Amino acid sequence: MSKNNVILIYGGNSTEHEISIRSARNIAKASNIALFHVIPVGVAKNGTWYLKTLETLNNEDIVLENDTPLALIPGSNEQKIVNLKTQKSIGKIDIAFPIVHGTNGEDGTLQGLLKTLNIPFVGPGVIGSALCIDKDLAKRLMNEAEIPNAPFLSFQKSERNQINFEKVVSSIGLPMYIKPPNLGSSVGISKVNTKREFDNAVDHAFLFDQKIIIEKNIEGREIECGVLGNNNPNASLVGEVVTINENHDFYSYEAKYIDANGSKTVIPANLSEDLQNRIQTIALKTFKTLCCKGMARVDVFVTPDDKILVNEVNTLPGFTDISMYPQLWEASGIDYTELITKLLVLALERADDENENLTQMNL
Predict the structure, then answer these.
(1) SS3 of 126, please?
(2) Cα(292)–Cα(262) distance, integer angstroms
(3) For FRET with 237, which of 77, 145, 276, 358 sits at 20 to 30 Å CA-CA?
(4) 264-284 confidence digits (pLDDT tens)
(5) What domains sit in the chain, N to C, each tagged with a CATH number?
(6) Quick check: 14 pLDDT over 90?
(7) In angstroms, rounded to a whole number, what is the distance separating the alpha carbons of residues 270 and 7?
(8) pTM > 0.85: yes or no
(9) What's the CA angle centered on 129, arms 125 and 131, to 5 degrees?
(10) Residues 6 or more apart from 219 whose CB is under 8 A from it?
(11) Nearest CA to 209 among 184, 246, 235?
């Protein structure tokens, strides 16, 4: 049985560049070498793609330039990705595993590129990726589908002078969260209690995006649920994120990735069976409503009176040593290697389904 060639795409022009590399290392290590041959492709911070080795993947903290920059050729069957130095194909590509977090990675742009190249890929497609990365649009669709989520306001950067603290407080209350809607890993998010914090947080969020959302603070437990599958997805056991360092009053970037004592995960979460089932049901409904396929992690709040509000959906969740998504599935009976295999198989199955669609009309 021949192996499938998998390009593992990581790095990127994103604030989550380094996190992406950590995820890629774990995916490469966990891949079933009897079934898949992993070809690392690093995307530098300037956007250039480079052919890498597993050794460089394990030793580079950022994607560095080398003498094997790559070019992409849509329409070709055997030369989709070419080494610019040798002008030769890097070989047949069967599947892509994009693990470029954030901008130009999980926002539909990379997915669209892979779609143009006709390369099956792990994770949601263009529409699902774009919807979920934009928390403003995602929340509007969830409201349409009657999926509960935190009340919010959104503003374009051109409306900066119209953002009034008193008016926002009358609508949202205090404290509130101000965030750029198109980033992940809690980048650019601020918790606000005062007008001074408000003004600084608005300006800070606009550094990362052309619009912001302002959300009502929800007092509740932070619960996460993994979803895996295409047309008939399954939900994992649920886990809880507990912020444990008094220096962090919410699950910030620092609490996630910098402070080793900033937070901990509890899997499975200490919840009643009924409440866990309700979370899984909402996670699956959200997954389908936002046009997801393959995988996603659905994050929710559970209030003291057991109401469930969806916080966000992460379509390319982290695969670092501390990431919740693989831990959730391991607790649900699917180990890391089996999870990677299932994701790659789901990518091939979805591509087969989509290839059945007519692309030409017989007139």
Answers:
(1) helix
(2) 31
(3) 145
(4) 899 999 999 999 999 999 999
(5) 4-121 (3.40.50.20), 151-216 (3.30.1490.20), 221-354 (3.30.470.20)
(6) no
(7) 38
(8) yes
(9) 125
(10) 303, 304
(11) 184
